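Changelog-linked ticket: pyruvic acid example.
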Amino acid sequence: MHIGVPKEIKNHEYRVALTPGGARELLARGHRVSVEASAGGGAGYPDDAYREAGAEIVDDVEVLWREAEAILKVKEPQAAEVARLRPGQILFTYLHLAAEETLTRGLLDSGATCIAYETITDAQGGLPLLAPMSRVAGRMAVQAGAHSLEKAQGGAGILLPGVPGVAPAKVSVIGGGVVGENAARMALGLGAEVTILDKSLARLEVLDHRYQGAIRTVYSTAETLEQAIRESDLIVGAVLVPGAAAPKLITRAMLAEMKPGSVLVDVAIDQGGCFETSRPTTHAEPSYIVDGIVHYCVANMPGAVARTSTQALTNATLPFVIALADKGWQQALADDAHFLAGLNVHAGQLTYAAVGEAFGIDAVAADSCLR
Ligand SMILES: NC(=O)C1=CN([C@@H]2O[C@H](COP(=O)(O)OP(=O)(O)OC[C@H]3O[C@@H](n4cnc5c(N)ncnc54)[C@H](O)[C@@H]3O)[C@@H](O)[C@H]2O)C=CC1
Ligand SMILES: CC(=O)C(=O)O
Ligand SMILES: [Mg+2]
């Protein structure tokens, strides 16, 4: 199969969808890999590293998109990229469609087959292609939150660990999945007082056992959320209902209950955000203030640590890319129900129910596209 890897064009997105090592694995299996010139530069992979692996470097992005059978990306396609997709072409990347109606309709109109990293499942009930970036974003969320608490960013001027004689900050993490656990671990390591709220008792039990009480676990209800809002200096939004738009857990009215200069880091922003006042921001201007509360809502947090993230992403995606290339998309998805869960759009049809629900579009069963 001919696989094309374009340079990412989202604001301050420095990741690339394939490392030279990943390209080498595909080439060894007889596939063709084309990489757009300088696509890996931001992640520390010069064009020569891809050439040495045997890949072709393509200067003209239009040629790359026109000739490749499958396009491998990191972020959801931007408008210029949607326009380049063609019927029958495969797109394999993060899509987060439930947060983006225009993108959803654009992909439907393209006629392409679009497989989302973030809805692929595994036998343990996890999301194996979202997890590596969730680990990165969870860890970064506390760095971002700590920075946002500084006065110059509009924060309350609080140091997360405090100092001897001054109490540490209170950090609440809403959603104790991969992002939430990684954020809580970082906050704990920095000496903050950490609470995780989740709707899943089973998940809270795992976390309680793992951290032996060092992290408080609280079942998430309207009442416990209100208490967290009143007490916290930093709140990390990390909930997910896979493939669906994030529930709005903190409304604008509730901001009035927070301490002035407190910080909301909405990691769930790529699924639309879990705070009513969240709107997607970029690494160029990551935060803004509403009613005295600092909001950090960067939708591609891992792009800022592109080297680490690119390696972690390729580690997770490569087995799926190999299956796709070796077998073709229909056979690869027919052989693996977890991979099939990644199919969001095929030949003008929506194949993911939660996205359909977000926009009132009828969805068909993904396996109906395999016949
Ligand atoms: N902004 C960024 O750069 C990035 C954003 N993300 C996003 O972070 C979000 C979280 O991802 P993961 O941690 O991997 O998901 P996950 O599935 O591992 O965890 C989500 C957790 O939320 C809990 N939850 C669901 N609804 C809830 C509710 N109403 N109240 C409390 N808890 C609730 C679930 O029980 C689960 O434990 C996703 O939207 C993901 O796309 C991930 C990576 C990068
Ligand atoms: C998951 C995601 O949206 C990201 O890594 O940017
Ligand atoms: Mg987005």
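Closing comment: Example verified and attached. The pocket of magnesium ion (ligand 3) is lined by residues 76, 96, 99-100, 270, 299 (CB under 6 Å). The domain at 2-120+306-369 is CATH 3.40.50.720 (Rossmann fold).
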